[in-house]
Amino acid sequence: MAGLTVLCVTAALLLLASGGAIPPPEEAARMARFVLHNCDWGALATLSAQEGLRGQPFANIFSLSDGPPGPLGGSGVPYLYLTDMEISVQDLEINSNASLTVSLAQTPYCKKHKYDPQNPLCAHIIFCGSIVKVNDSEAGLAKKALFSRHPEMESWPKDHNWFFAKFNITNIWVLDYFGGLKIVTPEEYYSVKP
């Protein structure tokens, strides 16, 4: 009986830690939404505009959020808080195209299951698209999404001219099981809940 209790508690902790039950592999669009909503940061790859690296791929870590934590808070839109002083943002000013990778490796889920970050069962999503500044009507939503997960952002230096941006998704690849990448359209992605 004690073993069953420990198993039930462990399962409950996994569900809480990962924001709910992980979607099954056959629901790739839901998996993409689930992974994004449960991740607080991602690797953003740009084409460098920096001297000596011009035109080369350049990946950098950025805090992000698609909405407040919890099972009902995600919009699916990856929001970012950026400054022109940041090297990758300088790249984006020349070419706004980018890719964004988010992985459940940053959550307790993969460690609890002893999945290496490269194991397909430790799901990761690759988004391609572009970074765009949000308009005034969307800035409040972006602010709530980001500051609810990253409260430190509110105290970042004002003289850095921070602005809210979003990743405008054009392509989505999901790796969450053996057998290769799954392609999800933005329409499929936005039509489901995580």
Automatic annotation (TrEMBL):
<keyword id="KW-0732">Signal</keyword>
<protein>
    <submittedName>
        <fullName>CREG1 protein</fullName>
    </submittedName>
</protein>
<dbReference type="InterPro" id="IPR014631">
    <property type="entry name" value="CREG"/>
</dbReference>
<feature type="signal peptide">
    <location>
        <begin position="1"/>
        <end position="21"/>
    </location>
</feature>
<dbReference type="InterPro" id="IPR055343">
    <property type="entry name" value="CREG_beta-barrel"/>
</dbReference>
<feature type="domain" description="CREG-like beta-barrel">
    <location>
        <begin position="23"/>
        <end position="191"/>
    </location>
</feature>
<comment type="similarity">
    <text>Belongs to the CREG family.</text>
</comment>
<dbReference type="Pfam" id="PF13883">
    <property type="entry name" value="CREG_beta-barrel"/>
</dbReference>
<keyword id="KW-0325">Glycoprotein</keyword>
<dbReference type="InterPro" id="IPR012349">
    <property type="entry name" value="Split_barrel_FMN-bd"/>
</dbReference>
<dbReference type="GO" id="GO:0005737">
    <property type="term" value="C:cytoplasm"/>
</dbReference>
<keyword id="KW-0964">Secreted</keyword>
<dbReference type="GO" id="GO:0012505">
    <property type="term" value="C:endomembrane system"/>
</dbReference>
<dbReference type="GO" id="GO:0005615">
    <property type="term" value="C:extracellular space"/>
</dbReference>
